[in-house]
Structure formats: C-alpha cells, structure tokens
Amino acid sequence: MKIKRVIAVVLAMTMVFAIGSTPVFARDYFQSWTSCCGNITANGTKDCSVGKVTVSSSLSTGQFNVTWETKIQGRGFNSLQGMGWRTGRDNRVLNYNAGLFNHTSGGNGCTYFTGYGWMRSPLTEWYVVDAWVNYGNTTGTNHGTLTSDGGTYNVISEQMTGANITGNGPFLKIKSVRTSQRTLNQNNTITFQNHINRWRQVTNPNFTNLSQHDYQTVIMEAYQSSGSANATVW
Amino acid sequence: MKTKLLTALVFLALSIALNACGKGSNGTDIDDGLVLVKGGNFINTNSNFYGTNLSVADFYISTHLVTQKEWAAVMGSNPSEFVGDDMPVETVSWYDAIEFLNKKSEMAGLSPSYIIDKDVSDPNNFGEVDDIRWLVTIDSGANGYRLPTEMEWEYAASGGQLSKNYLFSGSNDPDEVAWHFRNSGDEYLTEFWHWGIIQQNNGRPQPVGQKLPNELGLYDMSGNVREWCWDWNGDGIAPASGDGRIIKGGGWIGQEDVCAINYQNFLEGHYQFNDMGIRLVRNK
C-alpha cells in the first residue's frame, strides 16, 4: 500500500513538473508534401515520373528524415517537410538541429531550411531563412537588417495577391534572410521575438501592429534538387 | 439513419412551407427557389451581432449558391474556372454580381435593385486597387434580386430564429457543412495550410448542396465559395463608404475557421477569384 502511495506521489509530482515547466518537445504538427507525388502523412515513400521522396518522422522526438530525387529537370519537382506548432507565439524560440547531405542540384534547383508561418493581422506569410543551397535572390522591398542568434538578417517584404490561409486575396510576405548561413549539424535557434520586433518597425505601416499568430514551423523545402536531410525541431 | 431521414423530411417540409412565391411587377407568381427568413434579433451567441439591439427584417434567400447554369442562363457565358452546371459560379467580381442580379430581376419581371452609373467614380470607394469603381446605389423600392447585407447573411447563416447556436452554418463540425481546404480535394488533408499541397490534392469547389443544410435549410453558407455581400468594409455597421466589400462564409481554399459564421473579411470589388461566388436575396 505504501509503495503504491509513493508511486502515486511520484507520478503526480512528475505530472506537475511536466505541466509547470516548458516541455522540451512541444511540437504539435508535422507535414510532408511533394509537388508531383502527393502527400506523405508521417512515414513512407512517394515515387512518380518526375521525382521520388522517402520520409520518416516522429512528433514525439521532433525528428524527421527525408531523401528526395528530382528525376526530370525543369518539371518543377518540389518537396517540403515541416514541423512545428498550430498556433505561434511572439516569444517562441524555434530550436532545430538540421543536416543536409549529398545535395545535388541542376538548373535552378535549391534547398533551404527556414522558420515559416502565417499571421492574421494583417494577413502575413513570414520566413526566417537560415540555411540554404542555391537560395536565389529575394524580390521585394529591402528594409535593412536585424541581428539575432549570432547573425545578421536582411529584412524584405512584398505585397502579394493570391491563395492564402483565408482564400484568394491580397496578403503580405515578409522575410528575414540570414546574410551568412547557419552551420548545420549543431543546435541552432531562431529567436522569433527579435524578428517580429524588427518587422513591426519596417517602413511599411501595415506591419506596425503585426499580430494574431496562425501556425509557426521550421521547414525544409527542396526544389528541383536531389539529396537527403534530417532535422530535429523543438 | 432514422434521424437523418427525419431531418431530411423536416427540411423538405420547411422548404415547401417557406418557399417564396413572390409577386413580380406584372403580378405573376415567381417560383424562384428562395425561402423566407423570418426576421428578428440574433440569438446565436457566436454571431458578431449577438447581444446588440440590431435586428433584421423578413427577407427571402436562395437555399443554394448561384450555380453556373443559373449564371449562364442570365449572362450568356460562364466565367468559372471549375466548370459544371451544378457547380457554384465563381471568378465573379462584386460588379459582375450586381449586373447579374439586375439582369436576372429584369428577366423575372422584377424591378432591378441597383442603379448603376458606370461613368461616375464612386467617391465612397476608398479601395486602393479597384479599377472599376462604378457608382452603385440601391433602389429601396425595388423588388428584384440583390446581394445580402452582412447582417442578413450572418443572421441566415446563424440559423435565424431557429438557431441551434452553431459556430459554422448548421454544425459545430466544419466537415459536416463546409467545403474547406482540407476536404475539398482528392484526399482529406491533415497538414498545415499550404497552397502547393492544396493544388497537388486537386482542391476545388464542389457542386452546390452536397453538405448538410443549416437550420433554415440553406446549403454552403459555410465553405465552398465565399459570398459577396452588399456592405462596405468600414467603420461601424453598414458604413456609407469603405475600402472594399464584405465577404462571408469561407471557401474551398481557406482554413476551417474562415468558414465560421462570425469570420469577417473583405475584398475590393473588382477582384475575380475562383473561390468567390454569390447567393440571391430579395425583399419580402
């Protein structure tokens, strides 16, 4: 009886600790998508005429692994994996440890790791681009730089019209693009608060009251390239 | 099964009982498939108008979104991207809708609801990119077809006096009543919203009336295509000016939450998007 009581107390204390502290692995969403082969919910392979993707993932550990192959250059093969949170927060620190291996690219192919998400007021798609292979020039209005997490980021915004989380219509896009990219295979952080603070100060007044988070993730996107990557997000 | 059958019978009976057979200007009956919505104040607590003293008068509203067949019968052509007779008309601007409604009224022997002056740029239009800007005013004495006001749309979507207090029009489960980005394609999507994913999944609008109706027998008030309303987007209720027109209901591209009855959004009136359609309303 006493042993049971002790176990119960220990369990209760563990639960209190778990609830009262910030969970290390608090992601609640994983997604994987390929432009030609369809979706992969969590684990599996999709193989089609222009590309092939194999994915494994675990929400509980925060890890995902992916290999992708562009079979025909110029056919727009695109692969995206991401992990994160259904509802973002200004003060969330996006932690990740990502590795990119055996990357090959033809033509305009590229691969990049980025913080990614949406905000509702005003409707805004955002990126914090941290690491890449062949990441091209970003169009839009340049708003200068910000410093965060040991590096400098260029801040660029653009007015868009098209499909978005509410339907078709106008929306804003804002990006922080690191000027010298992150070292991979080590723990990295994206302190989102630094970015949103700076975004609220750019010359476009639409961003002044940027608020109301939708989802907030770390994603890896590959376009017309082949390679393999793994990442842990927490 | 019994419950579903009973529900269907109730809606059938309700539809017959409320079916509008209004009088045209020449005194003939018009069997146009609209149903009478009994007016009143807002009893759905999810509504933006709940708890106010605002109420709406009785009006007629179509149970279905305007279909492509209905649009083409009036306008002679179909602007929609996803073609099908029973599909909702889409890729129509607010101005296209106004012209359609007037023309449909005339064909039905009703007096047009809108006075359109294409030569005058509307001074109340504060939109930044609208390149049409016709001056459009309401003929308050007309008995023709028109767009719902925002209040009328939200009142009808919320179930009117028959409201069961749902967040979406007819249910608290969006999948029961609405086509949205997750369920409007080949497979049910569990991912974050992503346009590439939706395209890959062949996301598209769906034939009208396939989901459950709401308490008033209205289909697709939540989801499928978003619906133009008459009102300006501006300060206060029914403002006299604004930077666009109110849109309601959410559609096949957007997330579930934009299909809620209380979600507020607007677009400048010139936009023609493949997730924008309309629904008919007439005065009682």
Topology at a glance:
The complex is a heterodimer of chains A (234) and B (284).
Chain A lengths: L1 H19 L8 E6 L3 E2 L4 E4 L3 E8 L4 E8 L7 E8 L7 E29 L2 E10 L7 E8 L2 E14 L2 E12 L8 E5 H8 L11 E23 L1
Parallel strand pairs in A: 8-11
Antiparallel strand pairs in A: 1-2, 1-6, 3-4, 4-5, 5-13, 6-13, 7-8, 7-12, 7-13, 9-10, 10-11
Chain B lengths: L1 H17 E5 L5 E9 L2 E2 L13 E2 L2 E4 L5 H8 L18 H14 L6 E8 L12 E5 L11 H8 L16 H4 L17 H6 L25 E7 L12 E4 L16 E3 L8 E2 L3 E3 L1
Parallel strand pairs in B: 8-11
Antiparallel strand pairs in B: 1-2, 2-5, 3-4, 5-12, 6-7, 8-9, 9-10
Written description of the protein model:
The complex is a heterodimer of chains A (234) and B (284). With 234 residues, chain A is mainly beta. Chain A is built from 2 helices and 13 strands, in the order H-E-E-E-E-E-E-E-E-E-E-E-E-H-E. Chain A has helices at residues 2-20, 192-199, and strands spanning 29-34, 38-39, 44-47, 51-58, 63-70, 78-85, 93-121, 124-133, 141-148, 151-164, 167-178, 187-191, 211-233. Chain A is globular and about 45 Å long. In chain B, the strands form 4 sheets. A 4-stranded antiparallel β-sheet of chain B has the order 1-2-5-12. In chain B, strand 1 (19-23) and strand 2 form a beta hairpin. Chain B is an alpha+beta fold. In chain B, 20% of the residues lie in helices and 19% in strands. The model of chain B is unreliable at 1-29 (pLDDT under 50). Chain B is built from 6 helices and 12 strands. The longest helix of chain B is centred in the first third of the chain and has 17 residues, at 2-18. The interface between A and B is medium-sized, with 27 and 28 residues.
